[in-house]
Amino acid sequence: MKDRYAVMGDPVSHSKSPAIHRAFASQTGEAISYEAIHVPAGHFQEAVEAFRNEGGRGLNVTLPFKEEAFALTHEVTDRGRRAGAVNTLWFDAGGGIHGDNTDGLGLVRDLVANLGCELEDRQLLVVGAGGASRGILGPLLERNPARVVIANRTAGRAEAVARVFADAGPVEGCGLDALDGRRFHLVINATSASIGGKVPALPAGLLEEGAWCYDLMYGDQPTAFMQWGEHNGAAHVADGLGMLVEQASESFRIWRGLRPDTLGVIRMLRTEARESPASNEV
Ligand code: NAP
C-alpha cells in the first residue's frame, strides 16, 4: 500500500505538483501516491480532516488556502509562522497537523544553486506584499543581503510586512512611487500582475548593471515582467518554474526524509510546457 499525498486548491486541475512528486517518487523509489484534490471555498478544513482520517500522510496547499492551512496547524515552523501561510502539511500519529512554508527556500535554492544569482550584500527589491511575498522574505534575509525593500501598490501592506520581518534583517516597506532613484541587483516580482499579462508600475532606471529580474510566476513564454526586465537592461531574467520544483523538493524531504534531484524535473517540465503550452500554478 502506497503512502498517500495530495495537493489541495481551487482551481487545482492545472497543478504541476502531481507530475513533480511522481517524478520524485520514481527517482527515489519511494512508494507514494500523489493526486490533485479540488476543494471548493468554505470546505478546506473538512477536506484536510477527511484526508487525514482516511490515512493521508501529507498535503501541499495552493491558492487560495495557504492562510487557512496555517490556521489549521497545531505546530508550525518559524518561516511558516512569519509568512502566516503554509504550503506543506503533515500529520503525526496523534492526528496533530504540522505546517511549513517551503516557497522561500525553493526560491532561494533556484536563485543561488540553479541560476548562480548572488544575494549576499546585494540590494534586493521584492515587488508585492501578499502571501508569496511573506513566504520568501525570511529565506531571502537569511542570505545576508545589504537590504530588502518591499514595494507594493498599496504601500501600507508593504510597511506591515516589513514590520513582521524587522528583526530578521535590514528590510523596509514602501509604495511603488517611492522607488524613483533607487537601484537594485535583483528585482523579484511577487505580485499577481503577470497573471493578467500586466507589469507593476515600476520606474525606469531601477536596475544595477548585471541585475537579475525574477518572476515568481511562470509559463511557456517569458512573462510580462521578464519582458519588462529585458527592456530595462536586466542581465538575467527568470521565471518561477525552478522555484516551484524546489519548493516541492523541500516538501518531499519533510515527508520522506530524502531530497530528490530537481534539475532533471525542471528540464522535464520545460520540455512539456514547450510541447503543450498550457497552465500556470500559483
Ligand atoms: P496575493 O496574496 O493575491 O498578492 C497579490 C499582490 O500582487 C499584492 O501585493 C497586490 O497588490 C499585487 N498586485 C496585483 N495586481 C497588481 C498590479 N496590476 N500592479 C501592481 N501590483 C499588483 O498573491 P500571492 O499569493 O502573493 O501570489 C503572487 C504571485 O506569486 C502569483 O503570480 C503566484 O503565481 C506566484 N507564486 C509562485 C510560486 C512558485 O512556486 N513559483 C509560489 C507562490 C506564489 P495590492 O496589495 O496593492 O493589491
What can you see in these coordinates?
It is a single chain. The protein is of the alpha/beta class. The protein has 2 domains: 3-101 and 242-273, Leucine Dehydrogenase, chain A, domain 1 (Rossmann fold); 104-239, NAD(P)-binding Rossmann-like Domain (Rossmann fold), CATH 3.40.50. It contains 10 helices and 12 strands. The chain has helices at 17-28, 44-53, 66-72, 78-83, 103-114, 131-141, 155-164, 224-231, 241-256, 263-275; strands at 3-9, 32-38, 58-61, 75-76, 88-91, 97-100, 123-127, 147-152, 171-175, 184-189, 207-215, 236-238. The strands form 2 sheets. A 6-stranded mixed sheet has the order 2-1-3-5-6-4, sandwiched between helices. β11 (207-215), α8 and β12 form a beta-alpha-beta unit. The chain is globular, with a radius of gyration of 18 Å. The mean pLDDT is 95. The structure holds NADP nicotinamide-adenine-dinucleotide phosphate (NAP). Residues 103, 128-133, 152-154, 157, 190-195, 198, 200, 216-218, 240, 243-244, 247, 282 line the site of NADP nicotinamide-adenine-dinucleotide phosphate (NAP).
